[in-house]
Amino acid sequence: MTEALLLAIDQGTTSTRSILHGADLAPRAVAQLALPQHYPSPGWVEHEPEDIWAATLATMREALARGGAQARQLAGIGITNQRETTLLWDRASGRAIARAIVWQDRRTAADCAALVDRGAAPLVTARTGLLCDPYFSATKLAWLLDNVSGARAAAERGDLAFGTVDSFLLWRLTGGRVHATDATNAARTMLFGIRAGDWDDDLLRLFRIPRAVLPEVRDCAAEFGTTAPGLLDAAVPIRGMAGDQHAAMLGQACFEPGMVKSTYGTGCFLLLNTGDVAVESNNRLLTTLAWQLNGRRTYALEGAIFIAGAAVQWLRDGLRIIADAAESGTLAAQADPAQRVHFVPAFVGLGAPHWDADARGAILGLTRGTGPAEIARAALESVAFQTRDLVEAMRADWGAEGQPVLRVDGGMTASDWTMQFLADLLGAPVDRPAVQETTALGAAYLAGLQAGLLPPPGPAVAHWRLERRFTPRMARAEADALHAGWQGAVQRVLTK
Ligand SMILES: Nc1ncnc2c1ncn2[C@@H]1O[C@H](COP(=O)(O)OP(=O)(O)O)[C@@H](O)[C@H]1O
Ligand SMILES: O=P(O)(O)OC[C@H](O)CO
Protein backbone atom coordinates (compact mmCIF):
# COMPACT_ATOMS: atom_id res chain seq x y z
CA MET A 1 0.00 0.00 0.00
CA THR A 2 1.29 3.48 -0.85
CA GLU A 3 1.90 5.92 1.98
CA ALA A 4 -0.87 8.44 2.71
CA LEU A 5 0.12 12.03 1.92
CA LEU A 6 -1.09 15.42 3.13
CA LEU A 7 -1.32 18.61 1.09
CA ALA A 8 -1.08 22.01 2.79
CA ILE A 9 -2.22 25.18 1.03
CA ASP A 10 -0.63 28.30 2.54
CA GLN A 11 -2.24 31.34 0.96
CA GLY A 12 -0.08 34.23 2.30
CA THR A 13 -0.04 37.98 1.72
CA THR A 14 2.69 37.98 -0.90
CA SER A 15 2.62 34.42 -2.16
CA THR A 16 0.62 31.23 -2.44
CA ARG A 17 2.34 27.94 -1.62
CA SER A 18 1.24 24.36 -1.72
CA ILE A 19 3.41 21.89 0.14
CA LEU A 20 3.08 18.13 -0.07
CA HIS A 21 3.91 16.33 3.19
CA GLY A 22 4.37 12.73 4.12
CA ALA A 23 2.28 11.25 6.93
CA ASP A 24 5.35 11.89 9.12
CA LEU A 25 4.91 15.62 8.24
CA ALA A 26 8.22 15.74 6.36
CA PRO A 27 7.86 18.19 3.42
CA ARG A 28 8.11 16.35 0.08
CA ALA A 29 7.48 18.98 -2.62
CA VAL A 30 6.75 22.70 -2.79
CA ALA A 31 5.15 24.91 -5.43
CA GLN A 32 4.92 28.67 -4.99
CA LEU A 33 3.55 31.63 -6.93
CA ALA A 34 3.86 35.33 -6.08
CA LEU A 35 0.61 37.22 -5.50
CA PRO A 36 0.27 40.65 -7.17
CA GLN A 37 -0.53 43.51 -4.78
CA HIS A 38 -2.81 46.42 -5.65
CA TYR A 39 -2.53 49.81 -3.96
CA PRO A 40 -5.38 51.82 -5.53
CA SER A 41 -5.16 54.69 -3.05
CA PRO A 42 -2.82 55.64 -0.14
CA GLY A 43 -3.36 53.17 2.71
CA TRP A 44 -5.45 50.80 0.56
CA VAL A 45 -4.24 47.25 -0.20
CA GLU A 46 -6.20 44.83 -2.39
CA HIS A 47 -5.84 41.36 -3.91
CA GLU A 48 -7.59 40.06 -6.99
CA PRO A 49 -9.68 37.03 -5.85
CA GLU A 50 -9.18 35.24 -9.18
CA ASP A 51 -5.38 35.56 -8.71
CA ILE A 52 -5.72 33.90 -5.31
CA TRP A 53 -7.81 31.07 -6.72
CA ALA A 54 -5.74 30.53 -9.86
CA ALA A 55 -2.48 30.41 -7.86
CA THR A 56 -3.99 28.03 -5.32
CA LEU A 57 -5.13 25.54 -7.93
CA ALA A 58 -1.92 25.83 -9.95
CA THR A 59 0.35 25.31 -6.93
CA MET A 60 -1.73 22.36 -5.66
CA ARG A 61 -1.36 20.62 -9.01
CA GLU A 62 2.32 21.55 -9.28
CA ALA A 63 3.19 20.30 -5.79
CA LEU A 64 1.56 16.96 -6.56
CA ALA A 65 3.40 16.73 -9.89
CA ARG A 66 6.76 17.64 -8.32
CA GLY A 67 6.24 15.08 -5.58
CA GLY A 68 5.37 12.43 -8.17
CA ALA A 69 2.08 11.97 -6.31
CA GLN A 70 -1.55 11.53 -7.29
CA ALA A 71 -4.55 13.12 -5.64
CA ARG A 72 -5.92 9.73 -4.64
CA GLN A 73 -2.89 9.29 -2.33
CA LEU A 74 -3.95 12.35 -0.31
CA ALA A 75 -5.50 11.62 3.08
CA GLY A 76 -6.47 15.25 3.32
CA ILE A 77 -5.92 18.88 2.41
CA GLY A 78 -5.20 21.54 5.05
CA ILE A 79 -5.85 25.22 4.30
CA THR A 80 -4.04 28.04 6.06
CA ASN A 81 -4.21 31.66 5.04
CA GLN A 82 -3.46 35.32 5.51
CA ARG A 83 -6.09 36.33 8.06
CA GLU A 84 -8.70 39.16 8.17
CA THR A 85 -8.53 39.75 4.38
CA THR A 86 -12.16 40.18 3.38
CA LEU A 87 -14.02 38.78 0.38
CA LEU A 88 -17.66 39.00 -0.61
CA TRP A 89 -18.94 36.86 -3.47
CA ASP A 90 -22.12 36.05 -5.32
CA ARG A 91 -23.40 32.63 -4.30
CA ALA A 92 -24.84 31.89 -7.74
CA SER A 93 -21.78 32.67 -9.86
CA GLY A 94 -19.09 32.19 -7.21
CA ARG A 95 -17.48 35.44 -8.35
CA ALA A 96 -16.34 38.08 -5.89
CA ILE A 97 -18.20 41.39 -6.22
CA ALA A 98 -15.01 43.39 -5.58
CA ARG A 99 -11.33 42.83 -4.98
CA ALA A 100 -10.38 41.41 -1.58
CA ILE A 101 -9.62 44.08 1.01
CA VAL A 102 -6.31 43.00 2.53
CA TRP A 103 -5.62 42.95 6.27
CA GLN A 104 -3.14 45.81 5.89
CA ASP A 105 -5.77 48.11 4.33
CA ARG A 106 -6.52 51.25 6.36
CA ARG A 107 -9.56 52.61 4.48
CA THR A 108 -11.87 52.06 7.44
CA ALA A 109 -9.69 53.88 9.99
CA ALA A 110 -12.26 56.69 10.34
CA ASP A 111 -15.10 54.16 10.83
CA CYS A 112 -13.16 52.56 13.68
CA ALA A 113 -12.41 55.96 15.23
CA ALA A 114 -16.13 56.79 15.05
CA LEU A 115 -17.01 53.52 16.83
CA VAL A 116 -14.50 54.32 19.55
CA ASP A 117 -16.03 57.82 19.92
CA ARG A 118 -19.46 56.21 20.28
CA GLY A 119 -18.11 54.13 23.17
CA ALA A 120 -18.26 50.78 21.33
CA ALA A 121 -14.67 49.72 22.05
CA PRO A 122 -15.29 47.97 25.42
CA LEU A 123 -18.02 45.75 23.93
CA VAL A 124 -15.85 44.86 20.93
CA THR A 125 -12.89 43.94 23.13
CA ALA A 126 -14.95 42.05 25.71
CA ARG A 127 -16.57 39.83 23.08
CA THR A 128 -13.81 39.43 20.49
CA GLY A 129 -10.54 40.03 22.38
CA LEU A 130 -9.61 42.49 19.62
CA LEU A 131 -9.17 46.26 19.51
CA CYS A 132 -11.28 48.53 17.30
CA ASP A 133 -8.86 48.75 14.37
CA PRO A 134 -9.27 48.67 10.57
CA TYR A 135 -6.98 45.59 10.57
CA PHE A 136 -9.93 43.25 11.26
CA SER A 137 -12.65 42.16 8.81
CA ALA A 138 -15.84 43.70 10.24
CA THR A 139 -15.40 47.27 9.01
CA LYS A 140 -13.95 46.02 5.70
CA LEU A 141 -17.07 43.93 5.12
CA ALA A 142 -19.33 46.85 6.07
CA TRP A 143 -17.37 49.00 3.61
CA LEU A 144 -18.03 46.53 0.79
CA LEU A 145 -21.74 46.33 1.68
CA ASP A 146 -21.99 50.12 1.65
CA ASN A 147 -19.80 50.91 -1.34
CA VAL A 148 -20.43 48.22 -3.94
CA SER A 149 -23.65 49.07 -5.73
CA GLY A 150 -26.55 46.82 -4.68
CA ALA A 151 -24.42 44.79 -2.26
CA ARG A 152 -26.35 45.44 0.93
CA ALA A 153 -29.72 44.52 -0.57
CA ALA A 154 -28.23 41.40 -2.20
CA ALA A 155 -26.63 40.41 1.13
CA GLU A 156 -29.92 40.81 2.96
CA ARG A 157 -31.63 38.62 0.37
CA GLY A 158 -29.03 35.93 1.09
CA ASP A 159 -27.43 36.17 -2.36
CA LEU A 160 -23.91 37.04 -1.14
CA ALA A 161 -21.37 35.10 0.88
CA PHE A 162 -18.67 36.68 3.06
CA GLY A 163 -15.47 34.92 3.88
CA THR A 164 -11.85 35.32 4.71
CA VAL A 165 -9.45 33.65 2.26
CA ASP A 166 -9.95 30.19 3.82
CA SER A 167 -13.73 30.30 3.23
CA PHE A 168 -13.33 31.60 -0.29
CA LEU A 169 -10.89 28.80 -1.15
CA LEU A 170 -13.15 26.21 0.46
CA TRP A 171 -16.10 27.49 -1.56
CA ARG A 172 -14.10 27.21 -4.77
CA LEU A 173 -12.50 23.87 -3.89
CA THR A 174 -15.88 22.31 -3.11
CA GLY A 175 -17.50 23.76 -6.23
CA GLY A 176 -19.69 26.15 -4.20
CA ARG A 177 -21.08 23.43 -1.96
CA VAL A 178 -19.60 24.48 1.40
CA HIS A 179 -19.63 27.91 3.03
CA ALA A 180 -17.63 27.44 6.21
CA THR A 181 -14.65 28.77 8.12
CA ASP A 182 -12.76 27.65 11.21
CA ALA A 183 -12.85 29.26 14.65
CA THR A 184 -9.37 30.86 14.40
CA ASN A 185 -10.24 32.72 11.21
CA ALA A 186 -13.67 33.65 12.61
CA ALA A 187 -11.90 35.07 15.68
CA ARG A 188 -10.20 37.69 13.47
CA THR A 189 -13.36 39.13 11.96
CA MET A 190 -14.40 41.23 15.01
CA LEU A 191 -17.84 39.57 14.71
CA PHE A 192 -17.14 36.36 16.66
CA GLY A 193 -17.42 35.86 20.41
CA ILE A 194 -14.23 34.06 21.37
CA ARG A 195 -15.61 32.82 24.68
CA ALA A 196 -19.08 31.89 23.38
CA GLY A 197 -17.59 30.36 20.22
CA ASP A 198 -20.22 31.83 17.89
CA TRP A 199 -21.09 34.85 15.77
CA ASP A 200 -22.22 37.63 18.10
CA ASP A 201 -25.60 39.26 17.39
CA ASP A 202 -24.71 42.50 19.22
CA LEU A 203 -21.63 42.89 17.05
CA LEU A 204 -23.54 42.04 13.88
CA ARG A 205 -25.93 44.89 14.78
CA LEU A 206 -23.06 47.25 15.65
CA PHE A 207 -21.28 46.67 12.35
CA ARG A 208 -24.55 46.32 10.38
CA ILE A 209 -23.73 42.86 9.02
CA PRO A 210 -26.62 40.62 7.89
CA ARG A 211 -26.27 37.12 9.36
CA ALA A 212 -27.12 35.65 5.95
CA VAL A 213 -23.62 36.44 4.60
CA LEU A 214 -21.74 34.55 7.30
CA PRO A 215 -20.06 31.14 6.96
CA GLU A 216 -20.63 28.27 9.39
CA VAL A 217 -17.83 28.01 11.98
CA ARG A 218 -16.12 24.63 12.48
CA ASP A 219 -13.20 23.18 14.43
CA CYS A 220 -9.72 23.49 12.90
CA ALA A 221 -9.67 19.75 12.26
CA ALA A 222 -13.01 18.80 10.71
CA GLU A 223 -14.63 17.41 7.60
CA PHE A 224 -14.91 20.54 5.45
CA GLY A 225 -16.05 18.78 2.26
CA THR A 226 -14.32 17.25 -0.75
CA THR A 227 -12.80 18.80 -3.83
CA ALA A 228 -15.16 19.24 -6.78
CA PRO A 229 -14.85 16.93 -9.80
CA GLY A 230 -12.30 18.06 -12.34
CA LEU A 231 -10.05 20.04 -9.99
CA LEU A 232 -7.69 17.16 -9.18
CA ASP A 233 -7.56 13.60 -10.51
CA ALA A 234 -9.61 12.39 -7.52
CA ALA A 235 -11.97 13.92 -4.95
CA VAL A 236 -9.90 14.80 -1.88
CA PRO A 237 -11.29 15.60 1.59
CA ILE A 238 -10.46 19.01 3.05
CA ARG A 239 -9.77 18.24 6.69
CA GLY A 240 -7.82 21.10 8.24
CA MET A 241 -8.21 24.84 8.41
CA ALA A 242 -6.59 27.60 10.48
CA GLY A 243 -5.38 31.17 10.09
CA ASP A 244 -1.68 31.21 9.26
CA GLN A 245 -0.46 32.38 12.66
CA HIS A 246 -2.53 29.72 14.42
CA ALA A 247 -1.29 27.02 12.06
CA ALA A 248 2.26 28.22 12.79
CA MET A 249 1.61 27.70 16.55
CA LEU A 250 0.82 24.06 15.75
CA GLY A 251 3.74 23.78 13.32
CA GLN A 252 6.03 25.16 16.05
CA ALA A 253 4.56 22.65 18.51
CA CYS A 254 3.68 25.43 20.97
CA PHE A 255 1.27 23.07 22.68
CA GLU A 256 1.83 24.04 26.31
CA PRO A 257 0.72 27.26 28.06
CA GLY A 258 3.63 29.70 28.18
CA MET A 259 5.13 28.65 24.84
CA VAL A 260 5.71 31.46 22.33
CA LYS A 261 6.28 31.62 18.59
CA SER A 262 6.97 34.57 16.37
CA THR A 263 6.49 34.47 12.60
CA TYR A 264 8.41 36.92 10.39
CA GLY A 265 6.77 37.18 6.96
CA THR A 266 5.32 40.39 5.56
CA GLY A 267 4.42 41.33 9.12
CA CYS A 268 5.37 39.76 12.44
CA PHE A 269 2.95 37.93 14.69
CA LEU A 270 3.94 36.77 18.14
CA LEU A 271 1.58 34.35 19.89
CA LEU A 272 1.70 33.01 23.43
CA ASN A 273 -0.30 29.90 24.31
CA THR A 274 -2.47 30.70 27.36
CA GLY A 275 -4.22 27.32 27.50
CA ASP A 276 -7.90 27.23 28.49
CA VAL A 277 -7.84 30.83 29.70
CA ALA A 278 -8.68 33.79 27.46
CA VAL A 279 -6.31 36.27 29.12
CA GLU A 280 -7.43 39.90 28.93
CA SER A 281 -4.56 42.17 27.99
CA ASN A 282 -3.78 45.33 29.93
CA ASN A 283 -1.09 46.17 27.41
CA ARG A 284 -2.99 46.40 24.15
CA LEU A 285 -2.28 42.89 22.96
CA LEU A 286 -5.02 40.82 21.35
CA THR A 287 -6.78 37.87 22.92
CA THR A 288 -7.38 35.26 20.29
CA LEU A 289 -7.72 31.54 19.72
CA ALA A 290 -4.69 29.34 19.35
CA TRP A 291 -6.94 26.62 17.87
CA GLN A 292 -10.26 24.85 18.40
CA LEU A 293 -10.35 21.05 18.42
CA ASN A 294 -13.32 18.84 19.34
CA GLY A 295 -15.23 21.97 20.28
CA ARG A 296 -12.59 22.89 22.86
CA ARG A 297 -10.90 26.26 22.51
CA THR A 298 -7.25 26.89 23.36
CA TYR A 299 -6.47 30.59 23.69
CA ALA A 300 -3.50 32.80 22.89
CA LEU A 301 -2.28 36.33 23.47
CA GLU A 302 -1.10 37.92 20.26
CA GLY A 303 1.07 40.85 19.34
CA ALA A 304 0.67 41.87 15.70
CA ILE A 305 3.25 44.01 13.89
CA PHE A 306 2.23 45.08 10.39
CA ILE A 307 5.68 45.51 8.81
CA ALA A 308 8.58 43.07 9.19
CA GLY A 309 9.83 41.47 5.94
CA ALA A 310 7.91 44.19 4.08
CA ALA A 311 10.59 46.65 5.28
CA VAL A 312 13.19 44.50 3.53
CA GLN A 313 11.03 44.48 0.40
CA TRP A 314 10.95 48.27 0.57
CA LEU A 315 14.76 48.40 0.73
CA ARG A 316 14.73 46.32 -2.45
CA ASP A 317 11.80 47.74 -4.43
CA GLY A 318 11.40 51.25 -2.99
CA LEU A 319 14.90 52.44 -2.08
CA ARG A 320 16.61 49.91 -4.38
CA ILE A 321 19.65 49.63 -2.12
CA ILE A 322 19.64 45.82 -2.27
CA ALA A 323 19.03 43.43 -5.14
CA ASP A 324 17.49 40.65 -3.05
CA ALA A 325 16.26 40.17 0.50
CA ALA A 326 19.30 38.15 1.58
CA GLU A 327 21.60 41.08 0.78
CA SER A 328 20.04 43.09 3.63
CA GLY A 329 21.99 41.10 6.23
CA THR A 330 25.31 41.45 4.39
CA LEU A 331 24.77 45.18 4.09
CA ALA A 332 23.67 45.57 7.72
CA ALA A 333 26.85 43.82 8.90
CA GLN A 334 28.89 46.57 7.21
CA ALA A 335 27.12 49.43 9.02
CA ASP A 336 29.14 51.90 11.08
CA PRO A 337 28.69 50.86 14.73
CA ALA A 338 29.11 54.49 15.83
CA GLN A 339 26.00 55.64 13.98
CA ARG A 340 22.59 55.23 15.58
CA VAL A 341 19.91 55.37 12.92
CA HIS A 342 16.33 54.31 13.74
CA PHE A 343 13.84 53.22 11.11
CA VAL A 344 10.19 53.15 12.26
CA PRO A 345 8.41 51.19 9.48
CA ALA A 346 4.91 52.57 10.11
CA PHE A 347 3.99 52.37 6.40
CA VAL A 348 0.43 51.34 7.28
CA GLY A 349 0.27 52.72 10.82
CA LEU A 350 1.50 50.86 13.89
CA GLY A 351 -0.06 47.71 15.34
CA ALA A 352 0.59 46.32 18.82
CA PRO A 353 1.13 47.74 21.32
CA HIS A 354 0.49 51.25 19.88
CA TRP A 355 -2.49 50.73 17.52
CA ASP A 356 -2.04 54.04 15.79
CA ALA A 357 -3.64 53.71 12.33
CA ASP A 358 -2.54 57.24 11.33
CA ALA A 359 1.16 56.98 12.23
CA ARG A 360 3.49 56.90 9.23
CA GLY A 361 7.10 55.78 8.86
CA ALA A 362 10.29 57.70 9.62
CA ILE A 363 14.05 57.29 9.50
CA LEU A 364 15.71 59.22 12.31
CA GLY A 365 19.29 59.99 13.29
CA LEU A 366 20.62 60.65 9.77
CA THR A 367 24.04 62.31 9.41
CA ARG A 368 26.22 63.04 6.39
CA GLY A 369 27.93 59.72 7.04
CA THR A 370 24.71 57.68 6.82
CA GLY A 371 24.48 55.36 3.83
CA PRO A 372 22.67 52.24 2.63
CA ALA A 373 24.38 50.00 5.22
CA GLU A 374 23.09 52.00 8.19
CA ILE A 375 19.59 52.17 6.72
CA ALA A 376 19.56 48.42 6.01
CA ARG A 377 20.73 47.74 9.57
CA ALA A 378 18.01 50.03 10.97
CA ALA A 379 15.35 48.22 8.89
CA LEU A 380 16.39 44.79 10.20
CA GLU A 381 16.77 46.10 13.74
CA SER A 382 13.26 47.58 13.65
CA VAL A 383 11.82 44.08 13.50
CA ALA A 384 13.72 43.07 16.64
CA PHE A 385 12.84 46.29 18.47
CA GLN A 386 9.15 45.76 17.74
CA THR A 387 9.41 42.16 18.92
CA ARG A 388 10.89 43.35 22.21
CA ASP A 389 7.98 45.77 22.64
CA LEU A 390 5.61 42.82 22.22
CA VAL A 391 7.55 40.50 24.51
CA GLU A 392 7.56 43.13 27.27
CA ALA A 393 3.82 43.67 26.89
CA MET A 394 3.27 39.93 26.97
CA ARG A 395 5.37 39.44 30.04
CA ALA A 396 3.37 42.13 31.82
CA ASP A 397 0.06 40.46 30.85
CA TRP A 398 1.02 36.85 31.42
CA GLY A 399 2.92 37.46 34.62
CA ALA A 400 5.44 34.65 34.04
CA GLU A 401 8.86 35.04 35.52
CA GLY A 402 11.81 35.28 33.21
CA GLN A 403 11.92 35.27 29.47
CA PRO A 404 10.53 32.36 27.48
CA VAL A 405 12.47 30.91 24.57
CA LEU A 406 11.17 32.36 21.32
CA ARG A 407 10.50 29.92 18.47
CA VAL A 408 10.80 31.79 15.18
CA ASP A 409 9.75 31.05 11.61
CA GLY A 410 8.83 32.79 8.35
CA GLY A 411 10.84 34.10 5.39
CA MET A 412 12.78 36.69 7.36
CA THR A 413 14.22 34.17 9.81
CA ALA A 414 16.60 33.19 6.99
CA SER A 415 18.52 36.30 8.09
CA ASP A 416 21.10 35.10 10.66
CA TRP A 417 22.05 38.72 11.29
CA THR A 418 18.49 39.64 12.31
CA MET A 419 18.01 36.53 14.46
CA GLN A 420 21.25 37.20 16.35
CA PHE A 421 20.28 40.82 16.93
CA LEU A 422 16.87 39.63 18.13
CA ALA A 423 18.45 37.29 20.70
CA ASP A 424 20.81 40.09 21.78
CA LEU A 425 18.02 42.58 22.22
CA LEU A 426 15.71 40.19 24.07
CA GLY A 427 18.50 38.75 26.20
CA ALA A 428 16.96 35.34 25.55
CA PRO A 429 17.51 32.41 23.20
CA VAL A 430 15.87 32.42 19.78
CA ASP A 431 15.20 28.96 18.32
CA ARG A 432 14.92 28.41 14.59
CA PRO A 433 13.43 25.03 13.64
CA ALA A 434 14.65 22.70 10.91
CA VAL A 435 11.38 23.10 9.01
CA GLN A 436 10.79 26.82 8.64
CA GLU A 437 7.54 26.40 6.69
CA THR A 438 5.78 25.93 10.01
CA THR A 439 2.53 27.47 8.80
CA ALA A 440 2.09 24.84 6.10
CA LEU A 441 3.27 22.21 8.56
CA GLY A 442 0.49 23.21 10.95
CA ALA A 443 -2.12 22.95 8.19
CA ALA A 444 -0.82 19.52 7.14
CA TYR A 445 -0.87 18.46 10.80
CA LEU A 446 -4.54 19.46 11.16
CA ALA A 447 -5.49 17.45 8.05
CA GLY A 448 -3.45 14.48 9.35
CA LEU A 449 -5.08 14.75 12.78
CA GLN A 450 -8.56 14.68 11.27
CA ALA A 451 -7.56 11.77 9.03
CA GLY A 452 -6.52 9.81 12.13
CA LEU A 453 -2.87 9.66 11.02
CA LEU A 454 -1.49 11.91 13.77
CA PRO A 455 -2.05 12.26 17.54
CA PRO A 456 -3.70 15.32 19.18
CA PRO A 457 -1.44 18.24 20.26
CA GLY A 458 0.92 17.02 22.98
CA PRO A 459 4.17 15.19 23.61
CA ALA A 460 3.30 12.41 21.14
CA VAL A 461 3.55 14.87 18.24
CA ALA A 462 7.19 14.77 17.21
CA HIS A 463 7.55 17.05 14.20
CA TRP A 464 9.56 19.91 15.79
CA ARG A 465 13.35 19.83 15.53
CA LEU A 466 15.86 22.60 16.29
CA GLU A 467 18.00 23.84 13.42
CA ARG A 468 19.87 26.61 15.25
CA ARG A 469 19.70 28.38 18.60
CA PHE A 470 20.79 32.06 18.64
CA THR A 471 22.14 32.86 22.10
CA PRO A 472 22.40 36.45 23.40
CA ARG A 473 25.90 37.95 23.25
CA MET A 474 25.23 41.64 23.87
CA ALA A 475 25.57 43.22 27.34
CA ARG A 476 22.13 43.90 28.85
CA ALA A 477 22.91 47.60 29.41
CA GLU A 478 23.75 48.05 25.74
CA ALA A 479 20.58 46.23 24.63
CA ASP A 480 18.49 48.37 26.99
CA ALA A 481 20.07 51.58 25.71
CA LEU A 482 19.41 50.61 22.09
CA HIS A 483 15.81 49.77 22.92
CA ALA A 484 15.34 53.10 24.73
CA GLY A 485 16.60 54.86 21.58
CA TRP A 486 14.02 52.97 19.52
CA GLN A 487 11.21 53.90 21.89
CA GLY A 488 12.20 57.56 21.54
CA ALA A 489 11.99 57.23 17.74
CA VAL A 490 8.53 55.66 17.97
CA GLN A 491 7.30 58.56 20.10
CA ARG A 492 8.20 60.88 17.22
CA VAL A 493 5.77 59.18 14.79
CA LEU A 494 2.79 58.52 17.07
CA THR A 495 -0.26 60.69 16.37
CA LYS A 496 -2.10 60.05 19.64
N1 LIG B 1 17.42 36.56 3.93
C1 LIG B 1 16.45 37.42 4.24
N2 LIG B 1 16.70 38.49 5.01
C2 LIG B 1 15.71 39.35 5.37
N3 LIG B 1 14.41 39.22 4.98
C3 LIG B 1 14.10 38.18 4.20
C4 LIG B 1 15.09 37.23 3.79
N4 LIG B 1 14.47 36.30 3.02
C5 LIG B 1 13.16 36.66 2.96
N5 LIG B 1 12.94 37.79 3.66
C6 LIG B 1 11.65 38.50 3.82
O1 LIG B 1 10.67 37.55 4.20
C7 LIG B 1 9.39 37.90 3.66
C8 LIG B 1 8.73 36.69 3.03
O2 LIG B 1 8.42 35.78 4.02
P1 LIG B 1 7.11 34.85 3.90
O3 LIG B 1 7.11 34.04 5.15
O4 LIG B 1 7.16 34.17 2.59
O5 LIG B 1 5.98 35.98 3.90
P2 LIG B 1 4.39 36.00 3.63
O6 LIG B 1 3.82 34.69 4.13
O7 LIG B 1 3.91 37.18 4.41
O8 LIG B 1 4.14 36.21 2.17
C9 LIG B 1 9.63 38.99 2.63
O9 LIG B 1 9.05 40.18 3.12
C10 LIG B 1 11.16 39.10 2.51
O10 LIG B 1 11.55 40.45 2.39
O1 LIG C 1 0.70 36.57 5.08
P1 LIG C 1 1.45 36.67 6.37
O2 LIG C 1 2.21 35.43 6.69
O3 LIG C 1 2.26 37.91 6.47
O4 LIG C 1 0.35 36.75 7.55
C1 LIG C 1 -0.65 37.71 7.54
C2 LIG C 1 -1.44 37.65 8.83
O5 LIG C 1 -2.22 36.50 8.95
C3 LIG C 1 -2.28 38.87 8.97
O6 LIG C 1 -2.95 38.87 10.21
Task: Give the key terms.
globular; 496 residues; binds adenosine-5'-diphosphate; single chain; Nucleotidyltransferase, domain 5; 5-stranded mixed sheet; binds SN-glycerol-3-phosphate; alpha/beta
| Count of alpha and pi helical runs | 15
Q: Provide the low-confidence segments as ranges.
A: none
**Secondary structure: number of strands:** 22
At the third CATH level, what is the topology name of one domain? Nucleotidyltransferase, domain 5
Q: Mind telling me the CATH class of one domain?
A: Alpha Beta
Main beta sheet: strand number and arrangement? 7 strands, mixed
What average pLDDT do the residues reach?
94
State the fourth-level CATH superfamily of one domain. Answer: ATPase, nucleotide binding domain
Shape: globular
Distance between the first and last residues' Cα? 63 Å
Question: What does this protein structure show overall?
Answer:
This protein is 33% helix and 22% strand. The strands form seven sheets. It has a seven-stranded mixed sheet. A five-stranded mixed sheet has the order 3-2-1-5-13, with helices on both faces. It is an alpha/beta fold. The model has no long low-confidence stretch (mean pLDDT 94). The chain has a domain at 5-244: ATPase, nucleotide binding domain (Nucleotidyltransferase, domain 5, 2-Layer Sandwich). Residues 12-13, 82-84, 103, 243-245, 265-267 line the site of SN-glycerol-3-phosphate (G3P).
